[in-house]
Amino acid sequence: MTDPVRLADMENGAKTMAASEAIGMRLGLGGNKTLTIGEKDLVLFDGKGKHTIPLYNVLWAELSGDSLVVDYAAPRKSSLKLQKWTFALPTPETETGGPTPQSFVLALIAAAYGGAKPRKRAYVLINPNSGPGGAVGKWKKHVKPIFEAARMELDVVNLSRGGEATELSEKADIEKYDTIMALSGDGTPYEIFNGLGRRPDAAKALAKIAVSHIPCGSGNAFSLNCNGTNDAGLSALAVVKGVVMPLDLVSITQGDRRILSFLSQSLGIIAESDLGTENLRWMGNTRFEVGLATRVFKKKSYPFDLSVKLEIEGKEMIKQHYKKYASDSTLLNVDVEAAANGEEGLPKLKYGTVQDELPGDWETAPYDNIGTFYVGNMAYMSPDANFFTAAVPTDGLMDLVMIPADISPVAVTKALLAVESGKFFDNPHVTYKKISAYRITPRNQESGYISIDGERIPFEPFQAEIHRGLGRVLSKRGVYEAEGPAGWEKA
Ligand SMILES: Nc1ncnc2c1ncn2[C@@H]1O[C@H](COP(=O)(O)OP(=O)(O)OP(=O)(O)O)[C@@H](O)[C@H]1O
Q1: 248-469+486-491 architecture in CATH?
Q2: What is the complex's ipTM, to 2 decimals?
Q3: Does the domain formed by 4-113 have CATH 2.30.29.30?
Q4: What whole-number distance in Å separates Cα of residue 264 and Cα of residue 399?
Q5: What is the 411 CA–ligand 1 centroid distance (Å)?
Q6: Model's pTM, two decimal places?
Q7: In the chain, helix, strand, coil percent, each to 5?
């Protein structure tokens, strides 16, 4: 059993050492054996040959009795396997005059974590009902072992009902945790953001707690965008090594309610295909595709009035914006105070609510023949669906997509299939704009589906306004993991 005080010392030591200082450090292990911290790998020369572990996969290192132990997650074809390297420490007679084992361990942890915080303290919320099921099994088999090997501190709750994640996040002791983590689909992160958003200290809590996600649902957009994978084990490693990334959040007002959206808002074919197919949950992600195909062929349209605060129009301009900002770390460095707007609770709404008068500078138009109205804050909406190609985590802008219904089903299908091949954005039937606020009012329909982050809200007018960098998430590299199509390389 490792002494926790010593672990804490190591963590503090590791944090005070820059990863770059660790590179090149070599520990003699007696005989011809050496361990070297390379730029990307931990390298063992055992006298006969070289063995390497990617530093990204090193979870922890410590001195235990007379041994140095390195815990790591070995990459396997589709997942990870926990492994250990154990080395007998050199006796004083065989010491080679290099760094002490203690300082080598500190350096190794610093190099393995880079800008990420080691030993994150996590409040883990597991939704046993998410997606096709299996969140509890994934936790036990693929996630918890990695977190334990990385010496994370864990408080774990098995959720027993919808809404509980909101309540727990609302009441959570934010000083106690670095992250509130969802093992779920995208519904539980939505609940977590909204729980944090309901607190009297909402802005502070949203800036303090990074929300994280282990994919156990059918869409898992959060994880695809932030961890770069839909696999629970690989996501666990991405969270262990994750860095805090500011994220724009969207306030939605409907009636006298205000909620937060981190992912998307939709009305029309996409909303119906997602929410109208709950009876097909067992199908996992396929249920969405089945729902989509049946509606496209009916040429269903969803009339509405739309007012937008337009920020960037024209696909070439949007593409240039993406290339400039998608990986701009200065843009990502959002000031916490600014994000909080000096407010105690949620930031004030710049444009009021859906019940107020429309601002004069918004563009208003009636739409009678739209099949898909979809607004996104992240790029991937599901595996292989980088729908909002131009999404940037912290540009203070939402991406608005509309596809008409009065074109041939083949043309709509072609446009939607182009999502997978990276040609969706340029499809002539696809309208793509960057906006900072909008109001949508459905017309001539008794009922229908409106989806906010995959959760259904009443089929009534709502207004949306984005807050730049209001939230925090754990992300693999501080950017969205989505790669744009050819020609969209980030600057
Ligand atoms: N035991 C439970 N614990 C937590 N949430 C639950 C539970 N049972 C049902 N729910 C509902 O599940 C939703 C959250 O589920 P989850 O986080 O898995 O996202 P999802 O979007 O439904 O997943 P999927 O990607 O599979 O559609 C909430 O709407 C909540 O009301």
Answers
A1: Sandwich (2.60)
A2: 0.96
A3: yes
A4: 9
A5: 34
A6: 0.93
A7: 30, 30, 40
